[in-house]
Write a structure and sequence with these properties.
single chain; about 120 residues; mainly beta; Jelly Rolls; 5-stranded antiparallel β-sheet; 4-stranded antiparallel β-sheet
Length: about 120
Amino acid sequence: MPLQVLNGPVIEAGQSLSAGLDCTSGNIVRLTMPYAWDGANLSFQISSDGFGYNDLFTIDGKEIVIPVVAGTAVVVAPLNDYLKAVAFLKVRSGSRSYPVTQSAKRDFAVAIEVP
């Protein structure tokens, strides 16, 4: 399947949670990190309609949190069972319990597989 790269989501300066990104045209396969990043893991919120968002947890009640490195790409294939159900995505710097504020605007890119 071909890939399409979506610009965003974006975490604004002084924030820890991005705006939502419409991923309805495919399945998320890769996340590209901003080149600058105030050290933190990533966690996620998802939505079916782009309005009501919920934190992303596994079926056994664990928040999905991934370690990341600035300026790298993260292949999220191991999370495919969770991410293929995502229509709209927000990324969080840190976790739900321990969000980490970013000192500057952080632009991500998301690659999706499109039919």
